[in-house]
Amino acid sequence: MIEVAGKILGGPESQALRDAIDVVFEQDCERLLIDLTHVPWVNSAGLGILLAAYSRMRDRGGEMRFCGVGQRVRGILKTTKLLTVMPCDADERSAIQKFEEAHPGGRSS
Prior knowledge:
Blueprint: E1 2-5, H1 15-26, E2 31-38, H2 44-59, E3 63-67, H3 71-79, E4 88-89, H4 92-102
Parallel strand pairs: 1-2, 2-3, 3-4
């Protein structure tokens, strides 16, 4: 799981997120959960980072989910129609349960 804190704007402040995502892919994890509980805002460049990671995971046959999406970020995802593409769960427990229901026994991060 990657826990993100602060705004995701796609600039230098997002490098730690990019690096963490790269590490997950280097470890060949089949599942990735990104916790957005402490993310108050995401702009279009930030959405690009999240969508690219989601697409990359899906393209390699894995699964990626988001949890803890606040009202403001959820509104952005809804407006951009990404809420219908990228699965979002209320909390970590719900997301893990969805992972287990879909693919019991996979490697997670």
